[in-house]
From TrEMBL:
One of its GO terms (molecular function) is aspartate carbamoyltransferase activity. The gene is pyrB. PROSITE patterns: CARBAMOYLTRANSFERASE. Pfam families: OTCace, OTCace_N. It comes from Fructobacillus broussonetiae. This is Aspartate carbamoyltransferase.
Length: 307
């Protein structure tokens, strides 16, 4: 299931559907007002993992669309008493919510809850190391604004390739739209599944041809004990940090992106985050418009918004 009555994954969308979503996000960024709602739509935000960018941009997107928003304090909820995700969702459904925006540490959590009878509309705000559809949307919007196209662009993803849902989510869609992909980072975190989308390269080689250099945070919270004990910040910085010296190898037109949060000085040198090539804060701004577009499609598919 992709974007329809639910928004769970973008991988099953065809190119035209993706282009339409990007165009809708662009129109919102340019000031287009959303269509009228047919009812008072109530949305619950359930973030089982920490978030700043995703949660606040979903909140702003919901506000801009005129939805009635409810933010659950999960730290003080019955989850702490052992309530399952499905039962939590069935509870908010019973109380009268129409949509639940969920971030959860379990990969593909939505498959389980659907099998267990959850019926309200679901929006995936990130599932473990699975996918992150709204991040992919805002990345696409940022790239489109910069280059005016997707086909023929080269994207280098640098960092934690094994545990990042951003890599999994972006790679499939980027390739579908004709972008070339290369990957760099610690070889022990190379994900063999990524061979389906591009190739592993040394950072100093791959950065020369990239139009977009996507730096990725080390997912410390997903490392197992062996990975955590063997990880060295100094070694990572020496071999995989994008710094000023490596930035000089890039094309003049190339840009930096990062899904955040940025660990300044580790994945990317701090001054580059705020420099002229950086589109990192533009990505954050675009998150509102991308999430408005995805929520619009869910609202229209459920006949809660005018087409």
């Amino acid at each position: 299931m992709s974007v329809g009555k639910d928004c769970l994954d973008l991988s099953n969308l065809d190119k035209q559907e993706i282009f339409e979503l990007v165009a809708l996000a662009e129109s919102y960024e340019k000031g287009q007002k959303p269509k009228a709602l047919k009812k008072d739509v109530k949305v619950a935000n359930l973030f089982f993992e920490n978030s700043t960018r995703t949660v606040t941009s979903f909140q702003m997107a919901e506000h801009n669309l005129g939805l009635s928003r409810f933010d659950l304090n999960l730290a003080a909820s019955s989850v702490k008493k052992g309530e399952t995700l499905s039962d939590t969702l069935k509870t908010v459904e019973s109380i009268g919510m129409d949509i639940a925006v969920v971030r959860h540490s379990e990969d593909a959590w939505f498959n389980t809850v659907k099998q267990e009878g959850v019926k309200l509309a679901l929006v995936n705000a990130g599932d473990g190391a699975g996918v992150h559809p709204s991040q992919t949307m805002l990345d696409l919007l940022t790239i489109k604004q910069e280059f005016g196209k997707f086909d023929g662009l080269n994207v280098l993803m640098v960092g934690d390739l094994s545990h990042s849902r951003v890599v999994n989510s972006d790679a499939h869609v980027f390739k579908k739209l004709g972008m070339g992909l290369t990957f760099a980072g610690p070889k022990e975190w190379w994900n063999e599944d990524l061979n389906n989308y591009g190739r592993y390269v040394e950072l100093d080689e791959g950065i020369k041809d990239a139009d977009v250099v996507m730096c990725l945070r080390v997912q410390n919270e997903r490392l197992d004990d062996k990975e955590a004990s063997s990880f060295s910040v100094d070694d990572y910085v020496s071999h995989y940090r994008v710094d000023e010296a490596r930035a000089k190898l890039m094309k003049d037109s190339a840009i930096f992106m990062h899904p955040g949060p940025v660990n300044r000085g580790i994945e990317i040198e701090s001054k580059l985050v705020d420099g002229p090539r950086s589109r990192i804060f533009k990505q954050m701004k675009n998150g509102v418009f991308a999430r408005m577009a995805l929520l619009t499609k869910v609202l229209q598919a459920n006949d809660w918004m005018e087409d």
